[in-house]
Amino acid sequence: MSVPVGAVLCGGASRRMGRDKAFVEYDGIAMAVRVAATLSAAGCGAVVAIGGDAGALHAAGLIRIEDQFPGEGPLGGVITALCHFPDAPAVMVVACDLPLLTPATVRTVLARLDDADQDVMVSMAHTGRAEPMCAAWRPMAAAALVSAMSAGERRLLVAAELVGAVHAVVPVGDLTNVNTPGDLPQ
User: Fold this and answer.
1) Helix 31-41 vs helix 103-115: angle between axes, to the nearest 10 degrees?
2) In whole angstroms, how far apart are CA 7 and each of 38, 50, 130, 151?
């Protein structure tokens, strides 16, 4: 498989939002569907949702993959995505709550991984700070991430740095994160 693939992380508890963030609408489209469409538009050959409400994701037209590590945070979702696509050249993994993400930003993050040394396992979006919830991963990173998780690590940024990370500078607005109803862009 020579085309990158995409995964939308949908398994969070959404406590601050008060309801499932994946289905909160921005501009009339559920955020998970919006992010999946952005990944497709950026050239990802296949796009899946990791975790989340199986029935609702299916009804929204998304293919859902069961999270292998439910309740363990985004690190578990990333591992699940990498294990689902072991032969992909890259897996672009994005949180469902980034409704302003653009195809150009996705392509920038993927290109940075392509340009990196083969020992680098992840390219993270960077806007003045690293954003591991918008990152392109080499599937071979899965084993090291599982080891980190087994050792007790749950912080995605720390795990990403452990496997060798590069940063792709992207526009701040593209990574507007929606955690509460007040965070929705106007």
Assistant:
1) 50
2) 11, 7, 19, 25
Write out pLDDT tens, residues 56-107.
Answer: 999 999 999 999 998 888 999 999 999 999 999 999 999 999 999 999 999 9
Distance CA 124, CA 109 (A): 6
CB 110 within 8 A of CB 101: no
The separation between CA 32 and the C-alpha centre of its own chain, rounded to angstroms, equals: 11
φ, ψ for residue 75 (rounded to 5)? Answer: -60, -45
In order of their start, the domains of the chain are: 5-177 (3.90.550.10)
* Residue 49 CB neighbours (<10 A): 30
- What is the reported pTM? 0.93
- With a cut of 90, say whether residue 159 has pLDDT above it: yes
185 vs 137: which has the higher pLDDT: 137
